[in-house]
Amino acid sequence: MAAVATTQHDHAHVATHDAAHAHDHAHHSVSFIRKYIFSTDHKTIAKQFLSTSMFFLLVGGAFALFIRWQLAYPGEPIPLVGKWLPDTLVSNGAVQPGFYTQLVTMHATIMIFFVIIPMATGAFANFCIPLMIGTDDMAMPTVNMVSFWLVPIAGLTIMSGFFVEGGTAAAGWTNYPPLSASGTGHTLWVIGVFLVGFSSILGGMNYLATTLNKRAKGMRMFDMPLTVWALFITSILQVLGTPVLASAVSLLFVDQVFHAGIFIPENLLTSTGGLFPNGANVGAGGGGQPVLFQHLFWFYSHPAVYIMILPIMGVVSDILATFARKAIFGYKAMVFALMAIAFLGFVVWGHHMFLSGMSPLLGTTFMLSTIVIAVPSSIKIFNWLGTIWKGNIHFATPNLNALGFISTFVCGGLSGIFMAIGPIDVYIHDTYFIVAHIHYVLFGGALFGIFAGVYYWYPKMFGKMYNETLGKFHFFLTFITFNLCFFPMHMIGVGGHMRRIHDPYVYEFLKPFQPINQFITIFAILMGFSQLILIFNLLWSLKFGRTAPRNPWRANSLEWAAPAHPGHGNFDRDITVYRGPYEFASPQSKRDYLPQWIRPAHVDAEQEATVVGKH
Amino acid sequence: MSSALSLAHEPVTGIRHGKLGMWIFLASEVMFFSGFFTAFIILRNTNLPVFAHGASELNWPLAALNTVNLIVSSLTMAMAILSLEHGNKSRFQLYMGITFLCACGFLVIKYIEYTAKFSHGIYPGTSSFFGMYFTMTGFHAIHVIGGMIPIGWMLAKSFTKRGYQDWERVEILGLYWHFVDLVWIFLFPVLYLIF
Amino acid sequence: MFDFSWNMLTYFPPGISTYSESLDDLFRLVYWISAAIFVLVQIVLVTFIFKYRTRPGHKSIYYHGNNVVEFVWTLAPTVLFAGLGLYSDEMWKVMKYSSRVPSPDVEIDVVGQAFNWHVRYPGGDGILGKRHARYRTAQNLFGIDPTDIHGKDDIVLTGEFNLPINKNVVVHLSSVDVLHSYFLPNFRIKQDAVPGSWIDVWFNGTKSGKYELACAELCGSGHYAMRGVLNMQSDADFATWMDAKITAKKAILAAQVANPQPEVATPAPSSATPAGEHGSSH
Amino acid sequence: MGAGMSVAEMQKSYIKIFSALMIFTFLTIVAAKFLHFPESWGGVSTILHVSIGLIIAIAKAWMVVYIFMHIKFDNPYIRVFIYIPLFLFSVLVFALTVLGGPTL
Ligand code: HEA
Ligand code: HEA
Ligand code: CUA
Ligand SMILES: [Cu+2]
After folding, report:
1. pLDDT at residue A286, rounded to an integer
2. Rounded CA gap, C95 and C116, in Å?
3. Chain B neighbors of A258, CB-CB under 8 A
4. N or C, which terminus of chain B has less Cβ within 10 Å?
């Protein structure tokens, strides 16, 4: 206990020192600010991304719980927090209609732009790429630092909407004009999304350049672990997709601020019965195209859903192989499937717009291309099953989450097929069927994969082991509550329950669904609070966790060649790659794994040095 | 700790990190302007009279002057890289200086153009055409300014005692600068000439 | 307390349009295919997890995959999904291609306005008057051309409206402010109402009764309450109802002729520069 | 750089491209502002004007990319960064104009 107290004291001591004094300490060559705040070290940046996103996960999750409360018990005050909220948002502690739409918008904006994307690309790409390709840092470390700092700035910009006149953005995360074409909150949303998009582009540039240029000696592209492959392909999506969103929101900005009428047709009415202040009214006639915004938006945002899932697919592949002690089934097929998903991802955006009134021919095209995209996804599913087939499966927490990912992603993907079929989408578009799909792929898919990855690399990130019991407990609790929360959404979706409605019981045909909504809400709350176990585990283990060995999972890829808690520069030995990343159970080694960096002539002798338990 | 190791080796692709990064960034920039051009095409096709009328109010001779401006600066930028690569410092300063002046000239002309529009009561909100016009030329102008900062910095640095030798960086900047010219090559006919 | 069915197929609201049944069939088809795939994948997953779990003495094999298997399980979903896509395209055509729309028996205009649905009937002359966005004001939501004689007797209703059963109804749909979505759950019909364009939707209801019309696209804080009621009636009932409306409208018009009111200012067709003619479609 | 070309040769090719760019600029202005097709051609004349303007612009752009940006001399690998965005741009435009038609 005494020892702990001392370290705590030390920590506080360093932390309170200002930058000018920090260099006085002999053991402290870089200032505190350079080391922890404006750091250019990829591992620090990864941790910054991770902690920021975790924070936003709590915020976005809390919003979700408010949403759920309102849907289950409309008009009843939000427990605990309701009475603290201002009257502009709640009446008698219950969510007001305007607040509800703000909540939905902010929930999704935060979850997508500030949780999943920064987590999947920011945290994982930053941490994994340099370590897994055996290099010391990113190709452009300063750009990398900027890419992180744009995220909190953008987050603050968007969140500051809560404090402006008229409230924050409330047009859904898709922010379709004309609804989004007025109001300060929407303008702040646009600026924030522009900034976070810029961050994403800068990140993507770096990941691409690093993967292409900085691979260790002997590492060909097809020697890269699937995590790196997936992040590489994701980066292409980021670099080429995000700018289109940037131009879409820039044009929206021009509409909001100058009323140019780019997305606003002529002679629209405002809520007060007047006319929209719109360039097209001022003498020029003609009109803007609201649907154009949707095209530009989805041209980014469909690839964006793959930005959120592809890295996860890579992470899950690595974890499954490691814990099944077996090579990935069809490594090249996995790579080509990733490429195919990314490529097709750019030509299916219209499936979000079947009902926008687009030409039916275009609808047919998008319908077929969307259905085709299920093929590479099925290849991945089958290959994962092939990977665990005849394996020797260990059930550490990362693997449980990875297996959970497969189970739920199949469900989410298959519900995607329903919606991909145009005529069916006519009925289920904008119902809770979509909401169920979203959460099965984003929570059940992306977030489970993120949990898996966080547990898996936690030892390398912090040099400590997380608590296995708590980890398993968190997984099972989340998995069960997740399914009970989101599966019933399919059912009410088929029943016609619309999305984004503040009080469903205005409609006769939705009244019978209230018990189901209450059921969902109960499990949503349980699921929300289950996440506290995760947060607790990660924080507690930081201090009290067992010290991690260099290669706790007996894995093959290069990050495990680095010291248990790698310092600046990452590696303490030269790295040359001699084989692919999945040589599990190889006959060439006595052990059931054969890391990439072991020299062929010295397999058994050298491997001894990286065995579990040794540092 | 890391210095003793041979991790940092030559770029695998044979293209320097910065240059590769710049090309990736330019690919991204192409997509950024693609969004604008797509919007422009769609709006033009559905609002032809508005666009024709808008374009006829633009001052194409000024824009033509600016086109020349950027083409000259592109040439001098290429020359500046070549000079620095071969150690000709004074030539580098000359060419870089001209590039910088051209960029200033571009902005001055843009300023004249914009203020003339404002004085005629034409703003981005005047019509969808002018919304597109101000957005596209505005973002282009921001790119020009973004290029002038490193140009000016390198130029200033080359006059200091230690001078400026890093031609590879100038080459990367050059890629960016040519791209800015390239965008204008499309903006000029699309906005001012054809409708 | 929570006794509900876990079978999502039981949740469809009663379908009453001519194609609701075939649409539900299509849904059921996709449902059973998906359910089969889903169950299969889960069974395989659980079996493998159980069978190949780690235990003392158990070893994994050294195996990198098999191209034949890879090929088969690429081809199988391709064929299945392509087939599914082409098969359902038929239904898409029925619902969407204007060439497939049966000749309309009844044509109406519907516009969404936050947070109401407005409907326009052709009135006594059976012809909808011309309309254009430039005539739109808060009083003239449909932008009815004041110079068109056919527009004079058009009947405009808000919120609740009637239609005959067993008739092909074509709805010309638009919006006067933001996006809305015209959603008739029982007819399996949904279509975004996009300001600035008129989009056609068609259906043919087979059962009389009151059905709810919902707005399915977020249109502001009142979105949740943008509810309408569609009253499906037998031919005869509908005719009676319509006649009453026409008579009432005639009376109003007659009163106006007798006692002319200063016309509510219609804005001049947007001035000076040429105005785009789109938006006046059909 | 420049695949074994001397400085003088490089400079010469730069000047050549520069001159071509100037001439093309001149041409595009002439074509747009002083070349009038007969009234009777109607819409065809617009199409011609647009195509001439775009073709000249594409030619100019290609010259800048090819010589000034060293695509001619550099690693062929780099061309990927040009082709892919151009492909995606054409997908977007093709979908919205040809397939989409007036309703998008
Ligand atoms: C990570 C995110 C993610 C992922 C991966 C996906 C994946 C897919 N999505 Fe999803 N989608 C979203 C996130 C995602 N989606 C979001 C956020 C929205 C809502 C946006 C909004 O409006 O707010 C949305 C909306 C959405 C729509 C619009 C619905 C509407 O608004 O009306 C559509 C329509 O086609 C669609 C389809 C698909 C398809 C076909 C896939 C496919 O990629 C799925 C492929 C996977 C499988 C098919 C399962 C695995 C395959 C098998 C098990 C093999 C089968 C075997 C045999 C055939 C033998 N999605
Ligand atoms: C990665 C993405 C992601 C994630 C993780 C989630 C997580 C959750 N979402 Fe979200 N959701 C979306 C993405 C996501 N969602 C998107 C894109 C939309 C569409 C929005 C739109 O229409 O525009 C949407 C819409 C959406 C709706 C539909 C709203 C509507 O249309 O009206 C609902 C309703 O139930 C919902 C619920 C939930 C719930 C209960 C969770 C739970 O999983 C959350 C679990 C909770 C936590 C992880 C945090 C735990 C926090 C605490 C324990 C702190 C508690 C403190 C207090 C309560 C003060 N979401
Ligand atoms: Cu109208 Cu929602
Ligand atoms: Cu999509």
Report:
1. 57
2. 25
3. 123-125, 131, 134
4. N
- CB pairs B-C closer than 8 Å: 13
Best to test chain D binding among B19, B60, B182 (most D CBs inside 10 Å): B182
- The arrangement of secondary structure in A42-609, i.e. its CATH architecture, is Up-down Bundle (1.20)
Nearest to A365 among D84, D88, D99 (CB): D99
In terms of domains, do D17 and D31 share one? yes
CA C171 – CA C184 distance, rounded (Å): 12
Which DSSP string do the residues of A532-587 spell out, in sequence order? HHHHHHHHHHHHHSPBPPS-TT---SGGGGS-SS--TTS-SS--B--S-TT-BT-T
Cβ A255–B131 below 8 Å, yes or no? yes
In this structure, the residue with its CA closest to atom 1 of ligand 3 is C180
Q: What integer pLDDT is reported at residue A6 of this predicted model?
A: 35
Is C259 a residue whose pLDDT tops 90?
A: no
Rounded to the nearest angstrom, the distance between the alpha carbon of C187 and the centre of ligand 4 is 26
The mean per-residue pLDDT over the stretch A285-301 comes to 87
What homologous superfamily is domain B17-193 in, according to CATH? Answer: Cytochrome c oxidase, subunit III, four-helix bundle (1.20.120.80)
Q: What does the pLDDT read at residue C269?
A: 41
Number of domains in chain D: 2
Which one, of C185, C189, C175, lies nearest residue C219 by Cα? C175
Range of the domain at D63: 1-73
- Indicate the helix (H) or strand (E) that contains A291: helix A290-324
Helices (H) and strands (E) in chain A, counts: 21, 2
Residues C116 and C228 in one domain: yes
Strand order in the sheet with C116-121: C155-158, C116-121, C106-113, C169-175, C199-203
Contact yes or no for C190/A423 (Cβ under 8 A): no
CATH number of the domain residue C36 falls in = 1.10.287.90
Ion ligand 4, residue ranges at CB < 5 A: A 302
Convert the pLDDT of each residue in B23-60 to its tens digit. Answer: 999 999 999 999 999 999 998 888 888 888 888 889 99
* Distance in Å from the first CA to the final CA of chain D: 47
Angle at B59 between CA B57 and CA B61, to 5 degrees: 145
Tokens of A299: 């041209």
What phi and psi, each to the nearest 5 degrees, are found at residue C163?
-145, 155
Within 6 A (CB) of ligand 3 lie: C 112, 115, 180, 215, 217-219, 223, 226
- State which of A441, A447, A450 you would mutate to test the pocket of ligand 1, scoring each by most atoms of that ligand within 8 A of its C-beta: A441
Q: Which one of the ligands is nearest to A118 CA?
A: 2
